[in-house]
From TrEMBL, chain A:
Keywords: Cell membrane, Membrane, Transmembrane, Transmembrane helix, Transport. Residues 95-292 form the ABC transmembrane type-1 domain. The lineage of its organism: Bacteria, Bacillati, Actinomycetota, Actinomycetes, Pseudonocardiales. Gene3D superfamilies: MetI-like. Belongs to the binding-protein-dependent transport system permease family. Pfam families: BPD_transp_1, BPD_transp_1_N. This is ABC transporter permease.
Automatic annotation (TrEMBL), chain B:
Residues 85-421 form the Solute-binding protein family domain. SUPFAM superfamilies: Periplasmic binding protein-like II. Transmembrane segments: none annotated. It comes from the Bacteria. This is ABC transporter substrate-binding protein. Residues 1-24 form the signal peptide. Belongs to the bacterial solute-binding protein 5 family. Keywords: Signal, Transport. The keyword Transport applies. The lineage of its organism: Bacteria, Bacillati, Actinomycetota, Actinomycetes, Pseudonocardiales. It holds the Pfam family SBP_bac_5. It is found in: Cell envelope.
From TrEMBL, chain C:
GO terms for molecular function: ATP binding. CDD domains: ABC_NikE_OppD_transporters. This is ABC transporter ATP-binding protein. Belongs to the ABC transporter superfamily. It comes from the Bacteria. Signal peptide: none annotated. The keyword Nucleotide-binding applies. It holds the Pfam family ABC_tran. Keywords: ATP-binding, Nucleotide-binding, Transport. Residues 7-261 form the ABC transporter domain. PANTHER family: D,D-DIPEPTIDE TRANSPORT ATP-BINDING PROTEIN DDPF-RELATED, TRANSPORT ATP-BINDING PROTEIN. It comes from Actinophytocola gossypii.
Automatic annotation (TrEMBL), chain D:
It comes from the Bacteria. Its main location: membrane. Keywords: ATP-binding, Cell membrane, Membrane, Nucleotide-binding, Transport. This is ABC transporter ATP-binding protein.
């Protein structure tokens, strides 16, 4: 188990390294740089050149890369020129808000998605399945920025039930979480549906039926537990997608998370923030994948034993 | 502090406790019966830094915060007119090379330490040293200080220095960048209760402020980037004052009796330079004809009925140096004829650069007006950094930006951007250089005013750019808010605001 | 010209890499075949028997180059088959798989499957099939007739054919290259009894008609009895007994062979 | 295993005219058509046939486990009760308790995420036993089917068992509810020969000990000949011959049975490839008219192509659906001779 | 290998063609029909409806659907804040959306299938390399990378397509890789290998045809995803250059008029959602179809 864990961690590290390097390259390939944006249209070319030297942007790309990598290894992702603070500090400050949003949305999406998915998957091809698959298609087809604004208009302006935008307490959490949960719930429902449908076709379900168990017992004791295993994997793999959605939802609802921070940082060329945030997202995704594996191993004794088929 | 707050959110959310706080920090009564009260306000830009003299000094969010939190030496109250803030009085020598300010007696920072001349000098030096956008204003300006005076000595005569100094906010001499990350010591009417970079800034009155103290107990500046969300929040009462709204929203808000709209003239002018170094645009006749070909009045009425006002000068009326000009009237036929006469090549496609989404509608409608007389123009929306690079390298034919005048003195705008050396507009005229130099160095205000008037007339007639519109800032407030009055630069001030429940 | 000495497997060892757990390292490898030596003389039929996991199929795969041996040598007519791209060897040795349907590409007609063999080895193709579609169809029909199939099978896809027909097409395709050795990897195991008998009969017939050697891999001793000249018994990757069929069935020497024979139920019609 | 009292006297499960329709490419088709046989106490009935014969479907229909889209008609009589018309709840009562099933592939028929003990004991839990009691009973049952150290392995998962052990566990699971009838669907097909023999022995022993009635579904005539007391031979969804196993194999009264017997590759003699039956098993969704076997039958005549032969008793206990069965009854059987 | 999968009875039910299922098939074909209409509208619409993104009379701003414009025409879908006809925008936007979706799917499909198939078929180091690259890219939320790329480079169709393809190809790669790995073990591939059929031909004839179907199903899903993602980028102000007409931009420009001129965002939003739903539906059907076939 231990060497496996070490390997696993090594792989995670590799992935994060790749993520760090990729963002570095993309940002360096982009036209314009921090110096241009920071000084704005008012500056002269000489000012820009001076700042570039000061920031070390005139050094060879590879030197800058090694420098950056060295910093990243010690947790230093550079300083945000806008916030005048360590980028990671700023990001980590915002991170809990994103985590709260993502967790709430995931919880919502899991509840709705699992219920819909199980209802549809236990009778594939029947009316319930068709209706639910229709519903999930619609849920996936509506862009979150659109549904978010619509929810604001409806819940905040027309019904005056919830606050429109902002960060902080639970009331503010409801709308962004719901908006973020809609497509995710649809995704979970679809994964669950096919997983349940697949599992209910397995011979051991027939075995369970042959014992005289009620359909409910067959479903709850045999089918659902086994169908949830792939759902767990898929859900954790799609945490990235959720985080991506959070970027937009945070923007709409002025939720002070990493997503809205990132969007403004991209516009402002605040490299340190962009790099730090993408790396943080990468770490989250990689960690979620690890978590999924651990969870899977807990749920599936075959994986626990290292039996892979 | 900041992280503790977020942990608290996390814990509450995870426990699933449904707190029933009434509409956020909105107009909840602060509890005080006399005056007091709390307001929440929001614009479109997040407050990322509250360092008044740092790199973000003129960034929307930072600037609004600085005005509430800090005091400058003096502030502009009208074109060429100033009021002392931290400075009680000032003296200027005959050559405009020495400016001596005497500070008010017994004034202190929010922590109770006295504000000294050294503090002012240090603030000034930080402004110059930091990559602050203000630093370009202060080339070769020396500074000396005593406990209660501070003296600025520009190497060359700089009659506009007073105006420029209105931007320098006073912070303690020992302040560093890190001082602004948490709860900085302030010198203005408000001080910081809590601040999340990019998030909420909560301000409470500064008890040690020497001037008139704010009536409000608490002001929260929030960032709500989505305009629809911002307007909704105002209508639901979650916010009390908003800005960064468009004219179409004003139409919408006008129907709401709980809301009132306030507009404030700033110094911004919609400026569309035409690159005179482009062969097709080299002739002033051509540039003038293009200007004539666009029906700006109609656009302003349609698109900016509330915030726009047809411009009659290169700089706004609030700015020192303003001189009204003969408006350019829309006449497409004359324009077309003028172009034909000037031998304009109708096959050229003019590259019309812009970078901000707010200009989209405007640019597109200008392009369609030009198309109507057969001039091909291509709207090119540029990514911000690319736009800036292109702008500096004159890699455009027409561009659009809102040009403001910091400190409300034409030297900031005309004096810096229109000289041959600046190479910003593509237009170079030694005559103009001469006028601007005179305007920038003459000690006598009347002489300066006259020189700027000449320069403005030249720029206007030569059509270095099109100057279609003065831009007013739009605010909307709840009806319960009174005393809200933006300053001469069109920026919000909350120290005079009160709220009744 | 080398002597026709048939297939010679000497001291063959095949090691499978363990499942790749993550990234760069693999789990401990599994030795599927350990030091097996086996000859198949010209025109001889050797049956390779054993239970699942005994390594019998792995030997077949190593011979045809589907897996790379980690030790030992495989020769055909004295020429080593070390090079996986050895085109001549590919021609000389043909293989029939267990699942009659999946051995044929479901998107290709029987004709296309057979023609593909000729395309891979133009030198083995009958005269004129490369250019002339009519000649091609004739040659295919001729081959199909040899395995007892109607001409109309040529245009059909595997989904339109029965299991037995598919296996016949596979045999026809194997014969298309005029091989010297035919390896049948559980070639009749998945067939219904009645069809199994047909295919067994067909294999025996073509073996004689074409003077083929055959390596017949199966777990069914009854099937072995029907076709084998000699029997090699595998157990856990090793060869435990290799004897003349008659001898092996009447006087097995190894304990494991005895156990296998004892367990091999025969039709009981007594009483 | 303690002897238990059997309630009721009907030790026989009678299948009468069982017909199962499934949706096919051309609408509903009777893929099982008029099948009748008895499962008698203490005897093993062998249901044999090639692919498409409908043998597994027939067996599954006895406990109502056919696909949702299928329709089963006819009678499956447990005592006087027709299980085909019984309600769902009643069927669930019967499953496991009266009739249980041993499935073909123990590696897929056992839930991979549940311990063996829990799976074996599940049926007991649903009868109100405590978790511990159920585990103890499960251990007894596992011991009963010959799993060494049964008590220590109730907590094991299926993947920790070998194939043979899994099938033993499957059998224990089938016995847990103390059924009187056990349906074994190809119980040894997925196993190695040596293991196969042991499992067959076990099934035989259990049948004798508990006086069970067993239905063994298989395609393997060799296995059948050792285990079955009675044989039902199916072809294309119909019964073509039925009778005591030895008699059927010795003197087949249907040419299909005869051909099957001849096709079996024997370990002793080279017989199978001598005279194979032509063609492929009929497609149950597209059954030939008349006698479904006629396209492959060496004896087929014109009437076979049009007239469906009636399933009828030819000799005491011997039933056949061949127009010429009476003829076969009189001719001396040569097949058995050869086999000896 | 003793699994005798084929021996036991084949009782796989095949769908029946009854009257009811015929109705169902017709109903099921509707989304495909609508999808087809979009494509036709995207390809041919602009030939019949004249629309210029720079046109529009300011006098006709914010007209409700069905209003009469100053030049006497009828704005079926209303007009936007610049007085431009929304019907034209929807029609031309369909072209942009379909074009972007198609380009992204083509581009990422090509890359993904190539990488996936080769990695899956060859295995070994090639596979390892591809897997690691995919791991790294998967560590980014797709839209995030698109935001970064579209955000820092100058606006153009090519950048949007690249930004969306950067992570989009992974889906194709993973699908074709896993399929190639399975197919590699299929006997027909082995028998072709044993016969000495060349590797390229094996991939072309024995692997790719089987990947094609499920890939097509995936392509429809990715197509819908790309259209949605483009709209999201436009919403953030990072999408296409403003000279182009896209639903995302129209929706984004209408977001501040939601309370006063709902149609600006609602109509293209509906057009977008309906297209995505129809494409998704088509994808579902394809997935089911090819799932059955496997």
């Amino acid at each position: 188990m231990l060497p496996q864990l070490v390997r696993r961690l090594g792989l995670m590290l590799f992935t994060v390294w790749g993520a760090v390097s990729l963002t570095f390259v993309i940002l360096r390939l982009a036209p314009g740089d921090q110096a241009t944006v920071q000084l704005g249209p008012e500056a002269t070319a000489a000012d820009v050149a001076a700042l570039r030297t000061e920031l070390g942007l005139d050094r060879p790309m590879f030197t800058q890369y090694l420098d950056y990598l060295g910093g990243a290894m010690t947790g230093d992702f550079g300083e945000s020129y806008r916030f005048r603070d360590s980028a990671m500090t700023i990001i980590l400050d915002r991170f809990p808000a994103t985590v709260v949003l993502a967790l709430t949305a995931t919880a919502l999406a899991l509840t709705v998605g699992l219920i819909l998915g199980i209802l549809a998957g236990r009778s594939p091809g029947r009316l319930a399945d068709r209706v639910i698959s229709g519903i999930t298609l619609v849920m996936q087809a509506i862009p979150p920025f659109w549904s978010g604004i619509m929810l604001i208009l409806l819940m905040a302006l027309t019904l005056r039930l919830l606050p429109s935008a902002g960060s902080g307490d639970l009331e503010h959490l409801v709308l962004p979480a719901v908006t973020l949960a809609i497509p995710f719930a649809a995704l979970i429902a679809r994964i669950t549906r096919s997983s349940v449908a697949e599992v209910t076709a397995e011979p051991y379900i027939q075995t369970a039926r042959s014992k005289g168990l009620s359909e409910r017992a067959v479903l709850s004791r045999h089918a659902i537990r086994n169908s949830v295993i792939p759902v767990v994997t898929m859900v954790s793999l799609h945490i990235g997608t959720l985080m991506g959605g959070a970027v937009i939802v945070e923007q709409v609802f002025a939720w002070e998370g990493v997503g809205s921070l990132l969007v403004s940082a991209v516009g402002n060329r605040d490299y340190a923030i962009v790099q730090g945030a993408t790396v943080l997202f990468a770490i989250v995704v990689v960690t979620m994948n690890l978590l999924a594996d651990v969870l899977n191993a807990r749920l599936d004794p075959r994986i626990r034993a290292g039996v892979t088929s | 502090m900041r992280s503790r707050r977020h942990t608290a959110i996390a814990v509450t959310a995870l426990l699933g406790l449904f707190a029933t706080t009434a509409c956020g920090a909105g107009s909840a009564d602060g509890g005080g019966a006399t005056g007091g009260g709390e307001i929440a306000v929001a614009g479109q830009f997040p407050t990322e830094s509250i360092d008044p003299n740092g790199a973000l000094a003129i960034d929307g969010g930072t600037r609004v915060a600085s005005l509430q939190l800090y005091s400058p030496l003096l502030e502009t109250v009208g074109p060429g007119e100033f009021d002392g803030k931290a400075a009680e009085s000032w003296e200027i020598n005959d050559t405009a090379t020495e400016f001596t300010f005497t500070l008010r007696d017994g004034i202190t920072f929010s922590d109770g330490s006295p504000i000294t001349g050294q503090d002012v000098a240090a603030s000034f030096e930080r402004t110059v040293a930091a990559d602050s956008p203000f630093s370009a204003n202060f080339v070769d300006v020396g500074v000396q200080a005593t406990d209660d005076t501070v003296t600025f000595t520009p190497a060359a005569p700089d009659p506009a220095l007073l105006a420029k100094l209105t931007g320098v906010m006073i912070t303690p001499a020992e302040a560093t960048e890190d001082s602004y990350l948490d709860k900085p010591v302030t010198s203005g009417p408000f001080t910081v209760e809590s601040f999340t970079p990019g998030g909420d800034l909560v301000m409470v009155p500064n008890d040690r402020y020497w001037g008139e103290k704010p009536t409000l107990d608490r002001v929260t500046i929030r960032s709500i980037p989505e305009v629809a969300a911002r307007v909704t929040a105002l209508e639901t009462g979650e916010l009390d004052i908003i800005w960064g709204i468009s004219d179409d929203q004003v139409t919408q808000l006008n129907g709401n009796t709980e809301v009132q709209v306030v507009s404030a003239t700033g110094s911004a002018v919609t400026t569309m330079w035409m690159n005179a170094s482009t062969p097709a645009l080299a002739k002033a006749e051509v540039r003038r004809a293009l200007w004539q070909a666009v029906d700006f009045d109609k656009k302003i009425k349609a698109l900016y009925p509330e915030s726009g006002e047809p411009a009659d000068s290169v700089i706004a009326p609030t700015v020192f140096g303003y001189a009204p000009q003969e408006p350019v009237t829309y006449d497409p036929d004359a324009a077309k004829q003028a172009l034909v006469d000037a031998g304009f090549d109708f096959d050229t496609t003019l590259r019309f650069h812009f970078s901000q989404a707010q200009f989209r509608q405007w640019v597109k409608s200008v392009v369609s007006d030009l198309a109507a007389i057969g001039v091909k123009a291509e709207a090119l929306e540029k990514e911000q950094a690319v736009y800036t690079e292109d702008l500096l390298s004159l890699n455009w034919d027409i561009n659009i930006q809102q040009v403001g005048t910091l400190g409300l003195d034409a030297s900031y705008n005309l004096g810096r951007l229109y000289t041959c050396a600046a190479e910003r507009t593509g237009y170079c005229n030694p005559e103009l250089d001469r006028m601007l130099k005179l305007a920038g160095t003459a000690v006598d205000p009347a002489e300066r005013q006259a020189a700027y008037a000449d320069a403005t007339e030249l720029i206007w007639n030569e059509a270095v750019g099109m100057y279609p519109m003065f831009v007013k800032n739009l605010f909307a407030t709840r009806a319960s808010v009174s005393g809200f009055e933006p300053d001469v630069e069109g920026l919000p001030r909350f120290d005079t605001v009160s709220v009744d429940e | 010209m080398t002597a026709a000495t048939g297939l010679r497997v000497a001291d063959l060892t095949v090691t499978y890499p363990g499942p790749r757990t993550s990234g760069f390292r693999r789990q401990s490898s599994i030795t599927a075949v350990r030091g097996v030596s086996l000859d198949v003389a010209p025109e001889e039929t050797v049956a390779l028997v054993g239970e699942s996991g005994s390594g019998k199929s792995t030997i077949a795969r190593a011979i045809v180059g589907l897996v790379a041996p980690s030790g030992g040598a495989v020769e055909f007519d004295g020429a080593p088959l070390s090079n996986r791209r050895d085109r001549l060897a590919r021609r000389n040795i043909a293989m029939i798989f267990q699942d009659p349907r999946s051995a044929l590409n479901p998107r290709m007609s029987a004709e296309a499957s057979i023609v593909e063999a000729w395309r891979a080895h133009p030198e083995a193709a009958p005269e004129g099939v490369r250019r002339d579609p009519r000649r091609r169809r004739e040659a295919v029909v001729d081959l199909l007739a040899q395995v007892g199939l109607d001409p109309d099978v040529a245009g059909k896809r595997p989904t339109a054919l029965s299991g037995g027909q598919c296996q016949r097409v596979s045999i026809a395709r194997a014969l298309a290259l005029r091989p010297r050795l035919l390896i049948c990897d559980e070639a009749v195991s998945a067939l219904d009894v009645s069809v199994q008998a047909q295919v067994l009969q067909l294999l025996v017939r073509v073996r004689e008609a074409r003077s083929l050697s055959m390596l017949f891999i199966t777990h069914d001793l009854g099937v072995v009895r029907q076709v084998a000249d000699r029997v090699a018994v595998m157990r856990r990757g090793e060869l435990v007994e290799n004897a003349d069929a008659q001898t092996l069935f009447s006087a097995p020497r190894h304990d494991y062979t005895k156990e296998l024979l004892a367990a091999a139920v025969d039709l009981d019609v007594s009483g | 295993m303690p002897e238990r009292a059997r309630q009721g006297s009907a030790g026989t499960l009678r299948v009468r005219d069982l017909t199962i329709a499934l949706p096919g490419p051309r609408g509903m088709a009777d893929v099982v058509d008029g099948v009748s046989f008895d499962m008698v106490e203490g005897r093993t009935t062998g249901l044999i046939g090639e692919s498409g014969s409908g043998k597994s479907l027939t067996a599954m229909a006895l406990v109502g486990l056919i696909p949702d889209t299928g329709v089963a008609t006819g009678q499956v009589l447990l005592g006087e009760e027709n299980l085909l018309t019984a309600g769902r709840a009643r069927i669930r009562q019967i499953r496991g308790a009266e009739i249980s099933v041993v499935f073909q592939d123990p590696s897929t028929a056992l839930n991979p995420t549940m311990t063996i003990g829990d799976q074996v004991g599940e049926i007991l839990r649903s009868r109100g036993l405590s978790r511990r009691q159920a585990r103890e009973r499960a251990a007894d049952l596992l011991d009963h089917v010959g799993i060494p150290d049964a008590a220590g392995r109730v907590g094991a998962y299926p993947h920790e068992f070998s194939g043979g052990m899994r099938q033993r566990a499957m059998i224990a699971l089938a016995l847990a509810g103390r059924p009187r009838f056990v349906l074994a669907d190809e119980p040894t097909t997925a196993l190695d020969v040596t293991v196969q023999a042991r499992i067959l022995d076990l099934l035989g022993r259990l049948r004798d000990e508990d006086n069970l009635s067993m239905l063994l579904v298989s395609h393997d005539l060799r296995v059948m000949s050792h285990v079955a007391d009675d044989l039902v031979v199916m072809y294309a969804g119909r019964v073509c011959e039925r009778g005591p196993a030895k008699a059927v194999l010795n003197r087949p009264l249907h040419p299909y049975t005869d051909a099957l017997v001849r096709s079996v590759p024997s370990v002793r003699v080279r017989s199978a490839i001598a005279d194979p039956l032509p063609g492929s098993p009929a497609n149950p969704f597209d059954r030939p008219a008349g006698c479904p076997f006629h396209p492959r039958c060496p004896r087929a005549e014109d009437r076979c192509r049009t007239e469906v032969p009636e399933l009828r008793e030819i000799a005491p206990g011997r039933v056949s659906a061949c127009h010429f069965a009476e003829l076969a009854q009189r001719t001396p059987d040569t097949v058995a001779e050869e086999l000896r | 290998m003793t699994a005798m999968g084929l021996v036991h009875d084949a009782t796989v039910p095949v769908p029946v063609r009854t009257g009811r299922s015929r109705v169902r098939r017709v109903v099921g074909a509707i989304p495909i029909g609508i999808f087809g209409l979009y494509v036709v509208a995207a390809v041919l619409g602009p030939l019949f409806v004249d629309y210029s993104p720079v046109g529009g009379d300011l006098a006709d701003r914010l007209l409700a659907p069905g209003s009469v414009t100053s030049d006497g025409g009828t704005a079926v879908f209303g007009t936007d804040a610049l007085g431009r006809d929304l019907f034209g925008q929807v029609l031309y936007g369909a072209r942009t959306s379909v074009l972007i979706g198609t380009l992204v799917v083509l581009f990422s499909g090509l890359v993904g299938i190539t990488v996936g198939t080769v990695a899956g078929y060859r295995g070994g180091t090639t596979d390892l390399l591809a897997s690691r690259v995919i791991d790294v890219l998967l560590a980014f939320p797709g839209i995030l990378l698109a935001i970064v790329i579209a955000g820092v480079f100058d606006r153009s169709l090519a950048i949007v397509v690249i930004a969306l393809s950067v992570t989009n190809w992974i889906g194709f790669a993973r699908l074709s890789r896993s399929m190639a790995m399975t197919l590699r073990e299929r006997d027909w591939v082995k028998s072709a290998t044993v016969m000495g059929v060349r590797r390229g031909r094996i991939i072309a004839r024995h692997i790719l045809p089987f990947i094609a179907g499920p890939t097509l199903a995936l392509a429809t899903i990715e197509f819908a995803g790309a259209i949605l993602a483009e709209a999201a980028l436009s919403f953030l102000g990072l999408g296409l250059p403003s000279a182009s007409v896209s639903w995302g931009q129209t929706i984004a420009s209408g977001k501040e008029y939601l309370a006063s001129a709902w149609w600006i965002a609602a109509i293209p939003g509906t057009a977008l959602a309906v297209l995505v739903i129809c494409v998704g539906f088509t994808g579902d059907r394809l997935t089911r179809h090819f799932g059955r076939q496997q």
